[in-house]
C-alpha cells in the first residue's frame, strides 16, 4: 500500500489552508495555459451524447482552498467551450470528484467548500497511483502539486548494505548518484501506475493537467531554492541529533518522499505509456507572480504545513516547534544561497490528451 503524507489539516496557524500561497501562485501561473488548451484541444463533440454530466477529477486535492479555485477555472473554461460551439445545453451539469489519501482532512475540505458552486461534489479517498474510477468515466483530470510526492520512500535508502543508503541525509539533494537513481526509479514506477490508471478512466478525447515541482534537464536539485531548503532542514535534524534531542539512527532512517522530474523524464514516461498526446509541456517560473510581501518565516510556515505530519510521524511531537524555529534561523543564515539559486522555471506543467 502507498504511504500517506497528509498536509496539515484544519484551519489553524500551521494548516495547509493558511499556508499554501505558493501552490495558489503556481495554479494562477498555469491558469491561462489550461484555459487555452481546453478551448483549443478538448474534443467535446466526442462525448456530447449520452449522459448530460461533465465529470472532473481533482487528484491530490488536499484540504482547500486551492482546489476550489482550480475547479472553478476548469468549469468556466469548459462552459465557455460549449457555449462557443453552441452546445451549452448538452452538458447542463458538472460533477467534481475530489480525491486524496484516506488520511486527508476531508472534513475541512467539505466544510470550507464554496456554498455557491456550479458543480456537484463527491469525495473519493484512495491513492491516485491506482484505479479510482470506472473505465471511460471522467472527461477531465487535474492534479496540482501532488505527483511529486512518491508513493513510498525507496527501500534502498534504508538498507545499510546498499550503495543508496542515505546516511545523514534526508533527500537526494547533494546525495550520491545511487540515491538520485533510487528516487528516479521510484518516481518512474509511480508515474507508470498513474498513467496506466488514468488511461483506463479517461474518455477518448478527454484531457489531463499535471502540475508538479520540476527541474531543468540535467540540473542538480541542489541548484534550486527547494533543494537548499531541504539541505537546511537536514542540517537542523543532524544538529538536534548531535545535541541528543533525537538519535542519529532516526535521521539516517528518514527521507523526504519528494521527487522533482525534468521535462525529459516526464516526456519519456508519457511517450512510453502511449495512450496520451502531449499538448503542452513546459517549465514555468511561479516566482514572477510571487507576493512581494512574502518573507522567510512565511516560507518556513509553508514547509511546515506540507511536511510536519511526516516529520511528526517519524520523530514524534516533542521536536516540532524547536525544529521549525531552528529551520527559520538556518534559512536566514543561508539566504544568500537561496538568493543566488536558479531563478528560472521550476514548475512543470503538462497537458495531456487521451488518444
From TrEMBL:
The keyword Magnesium applies. One of its GO terms (biological process) is methylation. InterPro entries: MeTrfase_7 (IPR005299), MeTrfase_capping (IPR042086), SAM-dependent_MTases_sf (IPR029063). Keywords: Magnesium, Metal-binding, Methyltransferase, Transferase. It comes from the Eukaryota. GO terms for molecular function: metal ion binding; methyltransferase activity. PANTHER family: S-ADENOSYL-L-METHIONINE:CARBOXYL METHYLTRANSFERASE FAMILY PROTEIN (PTHR31009). This is Probable S-adenosylmethionine-dependent methyltransferase At5g38100. It comes from Theobroma cacao. The lineage of its organism: Eukaryota, Viridiplantae, Streptophyta, Embryophyta, Tracheophyta.
Amino acid at each position: 500500500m502507498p504511504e500517506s503524507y497528509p498536509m496539515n489539516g484544519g484551519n489553524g496557524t500551521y494548516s495547509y489552508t493558511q499556508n499554501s500561497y505558493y501552490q495558489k501562485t503556481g495554479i494562477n501561473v498555469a491558469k491561462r495555459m489550461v484555459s487555452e488548451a481546453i478551448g483549443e484541444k478538448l474534443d467535446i463533440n466526442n462525448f456530447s451524447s449520452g449522459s448530460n454530466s461533465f465529470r472532473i477529477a481533482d487528484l491530490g486535492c488536499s484540504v482547500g482552498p486551492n482546489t476550489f479555485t482550480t475547479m472553478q477555472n476548469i468549469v468556466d473554461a469548459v462552459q465557455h467551450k460549449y457555449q462557443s460551439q453552441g452546445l451549452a445545453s448538452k452538458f447542463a451539469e458538472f460533477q467534481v470528484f475530489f480525491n486524496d489519501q484516506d488520511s486527508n482532512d476531508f472534513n475541512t475540505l467539505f466544510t470550507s467548500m464554496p456554498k455557491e458552486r456550479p458543480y456537484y461534489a463527491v469525495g473519493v479517498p484512495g491513492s491516485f497511483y491506482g484505479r479510482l474510477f470506472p473505465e471511460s468515466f471522467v472527461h477531465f483530470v487535474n492534479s496540482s502539486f501532488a505527483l511529486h510526492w512518491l508513493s513510498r520512500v525507496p527501500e534502498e535508502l534504508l538498507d545499510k548494505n546498499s550503495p543508496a543508503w542515505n546516511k545523514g541525509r534526508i533527500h537526494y539533494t547533494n546525495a550520491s548518484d545511487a540515491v538520485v537513481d533510487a528516487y528516479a526509479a521510484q518516481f518512474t514506477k509511480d508515474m507508470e501506475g498513474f498513467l496506466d490508471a488514468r488511461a483506463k478512466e479517461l474518455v477518448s478525447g478527454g484531457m489531463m493537467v499535471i502540475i508538479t515541482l520540476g527541474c531543468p534537464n540535467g540540473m542538480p536539485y541542489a541548484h534550486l531554492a527547494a533543494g537548499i531548503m531541504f539541505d537546511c532542514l537536514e542540517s537542523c535534524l543532524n544538529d538536534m541529533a548531535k545535541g541528543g534531542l533525537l538519535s542519529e539512527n532516526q535521521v539516517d532512517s528518514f527521507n523526504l518522499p519528494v521527487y522533482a522530474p525534468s521535462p525529459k523524464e516526464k516526456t519519456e514516461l508519457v511517450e512510453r505509456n502511449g495512450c496520451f498526446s502531449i499538448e503542452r509541456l513546459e517549465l514555468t517560473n511561479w516566482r514572477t507572480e510571487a507576493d512581494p510581501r512574502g518573507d522567510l518565516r512565511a516560507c518556513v510556515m509553508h514547509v511546515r504545513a506540507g511536511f510536519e505530519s511526516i516529520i511528526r510521524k517519524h520523530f514524534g511531537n516533542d521536536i516540532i516547534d524547536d525544529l521549525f524555529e531552528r529551520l527559520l534561523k538556518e534559512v536566514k543564515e543561508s539566504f544568500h544561497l537561496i538568493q543566488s539559486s536558479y531563478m528560472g522555471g521550476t514548475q512543470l506543467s503538462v497537458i495531456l490528451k487521451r488518444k
